[in-house]
Design goal:
CATH architecture: Up-down Bundle
Radius of gyration: 23 Å
Low-confidence stretches: 508-512
Shape: globular
Number of strands: 2
Strand content: under 5%
Amino acid sequence: MKVDLVSLLVFLGFFALVTVLGFYAGQWRRGDLAQLHEWGLGGRRFGVIVSWFLIGGDLYTAYTLIAVPALVFGAGAAGFFAVPYTILAYPIMFVVMPRLWNVSKVHNFVTPADFVRGRYGSDRLALAIALTGILATMPYIALQLVGIQVVIGAMGVTGSGLASDLPLVIAFIILAAYTYTSGLRAPAMIAFVKDLMIYVAILAAIIIIPTKLGGFGPVFAAATAHFANKVPPVGATILGPKGYWSYATLALGSAMALFLYPHAITAVLSAARVDVVKRNAALLPAYSLLLGLVALLGYVAIAAGVPVSAPSQVVPALFKAFFPSWFVGFAFAAIAIGALVPAAVMSIAAANLWTRSVYVAYLKPSASDAEESSMAKLSSLVVKFGALAFIIWVPTQYAINLQLLGGIWILQTFPAIVVGLYRRWFHDAALLWGWAAGMLAGTLLSFSQGVKPTFAFSAGTHVIAPYIGLLALAVNLAVAAALTPVFDRAGIARQADLTSEADYADVRAAPA
């Protein structure tokens, strides 16, 4: 494939811009970056606008822009589950996250594992929550690289062996450098550019391309005919009854899991006030509108008949087919930058978890604030380059499979975190056993289906396939509920709760 020089130069220009912003961000709202909350949470000083861009940029990733249209392209209506899932997530955010923000502000909690340790007094349970978060985050970072790989390849930048991965390596070295120096301020500042670029690119695509194809009537007609003629039949533009359970439970389970991911919690805890969190829960559904438009590009690609060798190439192929080279470079830069923002936040979140719940809790309890921050910076580098090594030397499908498992795994932290924000019903030891049972059940069920997110079984004459994450969560809750009275009656003492009911209330978060 011939290199598209114009699109490549535009791409590099925007990449250079965000690199400059990334390094400059360390001077923005300057704080002592030798403090973990300054480096890893931006000093908890982000207002409504900054938080809107940061949280949105954190949750709507480059892989989303590539994978959602690819799923719709291959499976039809089932791919739209991502839209109701994000709509359901924000009411959950509005109800749950302000309580977490409040108690974290009072006790200087930086991670969800910090909260679990404070609430239940258990280092072992906190360690389980931290390791689950790191485990679920690593393949998520790796998949951001897929978005960058796809657009670099689409511009004709190819090679053999390690040379083919050199652009990706350079991009992540730059990302690692400015994240190390600027912390969470870097992705927060870059998110402004990333989101504006993505909105421009997607709106242009969803308006101009269907217009050239005769409108959305012909687009849907072409997609309907395409799925009807598939042999064997796969997908449809209208979801069939067999897909109802999968669609609904995937949407619900994914919504419940979204704000349990460490990077989502990190973005929320960086807010300056609790009202910032609430206002963003009300404003962030604007991104769901964008996501619906992004998903439609899967049908548009079918109607346009763009040649692709893999569904992940759908979006780049559309831009190349319908836009001039300069705009292709702009759109590809938006996708690549859309990978850098969440990858930075994810690596920071994983580093915070490692530092607080492993390094300080078990290896060096006497660590100073400066030592905490230094360890977080170093471990963020390890996380980034671990993900980079994974995507270079391990087939992409493994990263996809692990990310699917990641959603199932992170949902198993729901009892300790979300239930714990309201009541301390469960014994900490029971929660640990419940977590282990849920992790085991979810992993085994997923592998029994070929590492898929749903588990099919018969219910009378019907076959239903609910989301495995919810099935595993049911096991988790059942074990925790059954063992709690057992441990209590056995006289196994509950550890002290460092929080009080007042710590969860909004009164402590009045604007300065």
